[in-house]
Design brief:
Elements: H1 9-14, E1 23-25, E2 29-38, E3 42-43, E4 46-47, E5 54-63, E6 68-77, E7 92-104, E8 107-117, E9 129-139, E10 144-153, E11 169-177, E12 182-190, E13 194-205, E14 208-218, E15 232-241
Antiparallel strand pairs: 1-2, 2-5, 2-15, 3-4, 5-6, 6-7, 7-8, 8-9, 9-10, 10-11, 11-12, 12-13, 13-14, 14-15
Length: about 240
Amino acid sequence: MKKTINLSLIALLISSSIAYSEIKVGNLGVVTGTVGAASQYISKGVDANRDQPTASLTAEFASNSDIQLILGAGVFYSRPDKPVASGGNYDYEFDYNIGLRKTLDKLTLDVGHITFSYPSANSNLNLDSSSFYAKAAFAATKETTFTIYYEADDTKGSKPISAKTGDNFYELSLSHNFGPATLNLAYGDFNDNATYYKAGLSKELFDLNFTVDYISNNLDRKSWSASWKDKNFLVAGVSKAF
């Protein structure tokens, strides 16, 4: 696995359309979380688990303060039939982040640091990486939200082969609830890897959040494998907030 999936910690950081339950932690703050599954692992526009389903569990603590302290973590499990590299048949990813959040009327700002780790992978693959992140979400109306998300790598990317495979990343997204469902559109640029377009729908039903996304990527700028080609994906997912 590489970085994040459709229901991953970064996807949840970027998303502005998921409804969460809350667990109060005394007067300190609240904990929110999700448990979910996706039909495929698409990481920032790149197929990262050889078409295998992925299960996920995430949690976030937000303090009861004007500028909120954010602590997040996520575990994502999948076992690809073919590892991405020798010794790379790891079966789970553990991510965690720390940050600050401030809401100014319709604008919510996040800054922080996130780490992506693969404890069961061979250490010589150097897959672990971390990044500083920033996010701005603007609720233009009750139904429509614009989001800008940026990640600046501070570990020179992951290096499962001789070439650098991870770098800075940004995504521009729009979500609009039109009644029957929420329309989600996005454009992402994962430097030295891929650019992609994403269009999808999400729907809350029976306390579950169902998603379906069409993703089209362009890998012209990648330098790490000539065998990986441009591809289109259709990814279905379901999650439950707790």
